[in-house]
Design goal:
The protein has about 180 residues and is α+β, with helices and mostly antiparallel strands. The protein is built from seven helices and seven strands, in the order βααααβββαβαββα. A seven-stranded mixed β-sheet has the order 1-2-3-4-5-7-6, sandwiched between helices. The relative contact order is 0.15.
Length: about 180
């Protein structure tokens, strides 16, 4: 199902309160997959600090941030960060989630498409990778839909929100494969 009344926004247009509301509303939904972000945003003040930290990271070209916003309700409904940027190798990682109520409507897919274009054509990356939990099948489907290749499984690589070590599935997409689409 497609959802068209939304847009992608960048961090300079984000108000900490709206990101806090997105996180707070989805605590249970993203609890196991975004434990650091949840911890960094468990109060409004900490969320404000987190947004300011991310603004500084973007100014220093250490991270980039995309947000999906519902135009009718003017609320945030998704988040994608470009992180783990390695300039020498020309690669970066995506981390993303969509509000539980908006899943399956194409929001995450469009955010990933936009971030791929940005990563390959503006940041001049050669590779983008996604590491996702073995049990996060929705994230794996997003990676495969965008022609990422599964490159391996990293054992006990991620400590989830309840403290359990989990395997992660590593997906990669290189620029030449992206350009073939």
């Amino acid at each position: 199902m497609s959802f068209t009344d939304w847009k992608i926004d960048r961090i300079e247009n984000i108000i900490p309160e709206e990101f806090y509301q997105l996180i707070d509303k989805n605590r249970h939904h993203i609890g196991k997959t975004f434990p650091v972000t949840l911890s960094d945003c468990d109060t409004y003040q900490k969320t404000e600090d987190f947004i300011n930290f991310c603004i500084d990271k973007e100014k220093n070209k250490e991270g980039y941030y995309f947000y999906a916003k519902d135009l009718k309700t003017n609320t945030l409904i998704g988040y994608l960060c470009i992180k783990s940027i390695h300039l020498r190798i020309s690669k970066c990682e995506f981390g993303y989630f969509t509000d539980e109520d908006y899943q399956g409507k194409g929001v995450t897919s469009k955010m990933v498409s936009t971030a791929l274009d940005f990563s390959f054509n503006e940041l001049m990356m050669n590779k983008v990778f996604i590491c996702t939990s073995e049990i996060n099948l929705a994230s794996q489907r997003i990676a495969l839909k965008h022609n990422f290749k599964q490159e391996g499984i990293l054992r006990d690589e991620f400590r989830n929100g309840d403290g359990t070590l989990q395997n992660t599935v590593y997906f990669g997409l290189i620029k030449s494969e992206y350009n073939e689409r």
